[in-house]
Give the backbone structure.
Amino acid sequence: MAAAEASEPEVADAYLVASAQQGYIDAYELLVQRHSAMAYRVALRLTGNHHDAQDVAQEALIAAWENLPKFRADSSFSTWLYQIVTRRALNKVSRGRDVSLVELLPEDVADPAQEPAQRAERNLAVDAVTDALSVLPFSQRVVIVLHHFERLSYAEVASVTGSTEPAVRSHLFRARRALGTTLQEWR
Amino acid sequence: MSGPVNDPAPDSYSAGPLLSAATLACGADVDLLLEQVADGHARDQDVHQQECVHCQAAIGELDGLWGPIVELAASPVPTPPGLAAAVTRRIRALARDIWYTLEATDIGVIQIASRIVATLARDSARTVPGVRVALGRSTRDDLGALIERATFGHRHPHAAVGVLGRTAVVDLAVAVSYGPPVHDVAREVQRRVITTLREQVGLQNVAVNVTVDNVLDDEDD
């Protein structure tokens, strides 16, 4: 059963979006399954903690459903979702913690397959980058996360942030220097 | 940029001063070098870089500095196991009262998508002589507010309609032709929409709020 399902060709996001816009919730559920990992990952990089990341990802996926009638296919669903996640993360970071939101997850979602010693060593370097990211201004963090972590092109980052390619590149120049300088100071 | 500069390079560049400099001694732009390294092209060097001690030292330093960032970016981020399910639950709860009107009969349940109600109402309004355009708008009266809460403000784009059980509130914004009495046209819209929804959908309590917000001349198409 699972093997047969895995061999089925995946339908395009655009088809699922069009179906969801006509009220087929099943179609939107498939979109949620496809994109929730991305929503959470980006939210985690932008907010810096698991609790806020869960809130942001959950709010963004529900907001996307509520605003689906307004979505026009001039950008991809994923680009649109990046926009929503980014805006929600900015709201979260600027407002501080909203304790009324449901918290789903335990604090630590570490990979249990990793050996503790190996995990501790790796976490030192990784934590340093995470901390360095968290002290960057939000506008610089966004371009670093979208371009260097999510591998979006300058054009895609510009589309998500409502900016231009030259502006994105210029932001990236400053952000890389700032991130590099912070890391260097902590080395 | 000029050719390679063969002045003795420092034993190694320190990243701190390097990151506060605009250019290297050879004239190479530090921002461009960092972009090259950060985009994973440290080894895709041009002729100048291959022969320039300054560029070689700087690229090596920047590559080492950027390494942990690459490592973090490549690390998998486990998604909270309950996330997709929580979103799905919320959406199903939002949608349950939005899309269907319920009628329980002794041989089963009838469900009709509220967008069908909306489309029927809008199309019915458009058959009234003197109506040029009929559009949905959100409801604000008491019954409307009740349904607004039940439907969480979620409206189908084609027309505003709230359906709860066999009760429906439909808001229509209507543009009429110049000439016929506006009041008569609006009353006829209410009468036809109510008749249509009672006969075709089986709704018992139907309220139709009509807002005439435009009067168009014949040439205003």
